[in-house]
Amino acid sequence: MQEEPEYGFPDLVVVLVGPETPGNVGFAARAMANFGVSRLRIVGNDIRNDQFAQIFAVRAHAILDNAEIFPDLASALKDVEAAWSATARKGSNHSVTRAVIPLEDLPNPKSLPATVAIVFGRESVGLTNEEVALCDIAFEIPTSPDYPSMNLSHAIAVTMYELHRKYAQKPERRPTDLRPATKEEREQAAFFMDELIDQTRIKDFRKPIAKQVFRNLLNRAYMSGREVATLTGVVRKLMELTEDNEE
């Protein structure tokens, strides 16, 4: 008898960076509980025992009490497979460091083999460019252009609802021999592409842009391990050809 898929998102973790209002953290825990998400991480001050956080968590105290505290976003993401950041400040078509996709285009977190983090920024200013750069994907919640910024807990609720609506009870079926590429495999492919770009005649000031574009494509594609291994092999062969032409 085939086992039923686990309800909710046991491998999804919500990361709050520098939350400024303890009540919002309590509301966030409640919104997470509504949609089967139980893992919370807080970057910054430990406000788990704040009275407003506790009051507004209502019956989601376990999520709040078990939240993990980290000094910075990099340490909070150290053990995750992928990180997706919410932002209301998307870049233009010429921006490669803040290339934003709509919330509805986020892939199924259950399709990845390990932990996926959804990262939310400060109520006043959101995430910094450096913090967004630590994540694989930046996404936006469709809102009125006249007032695009959402309350932190509302943004979490909308995001969790969208993921729940699309994926909670409809996990993706993958062939048994198809394994998504790991973070380490993607980083290796990006490393060799960096080396290849450095050997080309692209102008120096354009090289970081070219490298970032490749990373954006690699992170959004959610390629299999076999596909990334093949891509890495092709890039290494191109490097060898480039080196031979220089001799």
Q: How large a portion of the residues is in β-strands, by DSSP E?
A: 5-15%
As for the CATH topology of the largest domain, it is Alpha/beta knot
State the strand order across the main sheet: 3-2-1-6-4-7-5
As a whole number of angstroms, the C-alpha radius of gyration is: 20 Å
The secondary-structure element order is EHEHHEHEEEHEHHHH
Class derived from helix and strand content: alpha/beta
CATH class of the largest domain: Alpha Beta
What does the average pLDDT come to? 85
Number of strand segments: 7
Oligomer: single chain
Question: What key phrases describe this protein's structure?
Answer:
247 residues; 2 domains; 9 helices; disordered N terminus
Description of the molecule:
With about 250 residues, the chain is an alpha/beta fold. The protein folds into 2 domains: about 10-165, SPOUT methyltransferase, trefoil knot domain (Alpha/beta knot, 3-Layer(aba) Sandwich); about 185-245. Helices cover about 40% and strands about 15% of the residues. It has 9 helices and 7 strands; from the N terminus they run E-H-E-H-H-E-H-E-E-E-H-E-H-H-H-H. It has helices at about 20-35, 50-55, 60-65, 75, 130-135, 150-165, 185-200, 205-220, 225-245, and strands at about 10-15, 40-45, 70, 80-85, 100, 115-120, 135-140. Strands 3-2-1-6-4-7-5 form a 7-stranded parallel beta sheet. The longest helix has 22 residues, at about 225-245. The radius of gyration is 20 Å and the shape is elongated. It starts with 11 loop residues before the first strand and ends with a helix. Mean pLDDT is about 85; it is low at about 1-5.
